[in-house]
Every structure is written in structure tokens, then in C-alpha cells.
Amino acid sequence: MDTTKVGHFPPSKRYGLILHGVILLVLGGISGYGFLNLTRAEVGPSFVVYLLMALLAFAPMPFFGYRAYALFKADYYIDRDSLAMLWGLRVEDIPLTDIEWVRPATDLSHPLALPRFRLPGSVLGTRRHPDLGLVEFIASSSRNLILIATAKRIFAISPRDPAALVRTFARATELGSLTPAEPKSVYPSFIVTQAWESPAARFLWMSGFLLNLGLVVWVSILIPSLERVPFGFDAFGKPNDITSSARLILLPLISSLMFVTGLTGGLYFYRWENTRPLSFIIWLSSMVCAVLFLVAVLFLVTTPL
Fold it and tell me: Is 117 within the bounds of a domain?
């Protein structure tokens, strides 16, 4: 998209970012509380409760974290060639010649059904309308929605100043296109699919996953068979912090967290050709970390008390 003479119409972000930040803090606090008590609990019902608490609170954090990131990066642009919608890794760039009409959602005779799972700052998904057909929402708010119609799909967006966007679109179409634009549609899943086609990426992903899975299974077998393990050493390499074997569960959890973080970070850099080598370095590092955690568990359980 040509960035000269661009109309820039970002969505409202403040309330959505605050809400997602609060959700992440609450989930992080619950997960941290569970992990902290997990290190102190003996093997038994309380150990299982703290483990489930930590994992269930942590599981949705990447989802809300990505939605917060997507909202932070969200924007809408119009120039004389195209209208672009940017939402995290989601990119929709539509040539102005492909747009049939732009109008407020309030003009519809039948109300527009909103996505079932939505939060302020994250009104995303698709719904079917009796008159329009499939409508894709790329919006931060359910108020002041603007509909953009193409031959294939209707998009619902929420610029902070919808009237200005409509005026700019009308002016851009009157001026005419300078250069024929090509439609572009990128989904987050497209990055994963594209990376999966690389044999090196598949090997690193599957190796890291299997190593972490093996670490979880091994530690789960070790914990009931051991009473105490060393979790600290003095300057001469002798154990000085003998604790419950339940603390071993921290190692596969930390390793898995690092693997997921590395996988996500690598996908972020894989979007551009010039940074793809960095993606492979990150994925290789995640796999090596899993190997080091396996060695750490072996060292702890074989160290004489």
C-alpha cells in the first residue's frame, strides 16, 4: 500500500488495552500463586489442585496476550489505491476498485449480529447476516461500526472517527487510483502454515515438542518414586537445599514455557525474509533449552544427598 497521502483512522484502544491488561495480570497472579504453592506442596490432592490452578490460569494467557498485541497494532488506512485493515498479524488490503460500498451499520434494516465471544477492544470473528451474508468483524468496539462491502465479503470495522473515514473514502474514489493495487489477505494461521512447509522448522518444532513431552512424562514418573531432591548447591558442588521431589515439576513447566515463547517469537520474525534466520536461531535455542533441562533433571536425581 502506498503510504503517501494516507488517511489514518485508528480504532479506540485505551479501554480495551486496560481490560486486557487487567485480565492478564489476574491470570498471571493466579498462575503464579499456583506455581509458588506447587513448589511447597507434598505429592497428593493439594499438589494436583495447585498444578491445575497454575495450568488453567496460564493456558488462556497467550490468547489474551495476542489480542492485546493485535489491538495495540490495530489501524485502518486509506489512500488513492486501497483500504487496509491491520490487526496484529491479520492484514486485509482491498483495492478501492473492489469496494462496492461503505456505510454505517446503523443503516441496516436488520440489526447486525455481533461475534459470540467478544470483549471491549476485541470484537473479532464472523457472523452471517440475512441480507449481507457473511460479515467479518475486525473491530475494537460494537459501536459506530462501518461496513465495507466487496464482491466476496463484508467487513465491519470501528474507526475512532467513522464519519471522517467515510468522507476520505468518497474523496479517494473521486480522485481515482494512481496505480492498480493487488488485493492482499493475510491471517495469523497463514504464518504457521508457511513456516510448517519448511523441513527445518518442522524438525525443530517437533523435536522441541517431543523433548518437552518426554521431560513431563519422566518427571511425573520420578516424583512419586523420590522423597527428596537437591535444589541448590554450595561453592564446592555439594547440595545445600534438600526439598520435596514435587519441586521437580517446575523444570518441565519452565522448559515448556520457554518452548512456547520461543515458538511464538520465531513466528513473529518469520514474517519477513530478512529476519527468518533469526526465527530458526530462536527455535534451535528452544530445543537446546529442553535438552539442558533434561540434563538438569538427570543431574538432580543422580546427585547423592
Answer: no
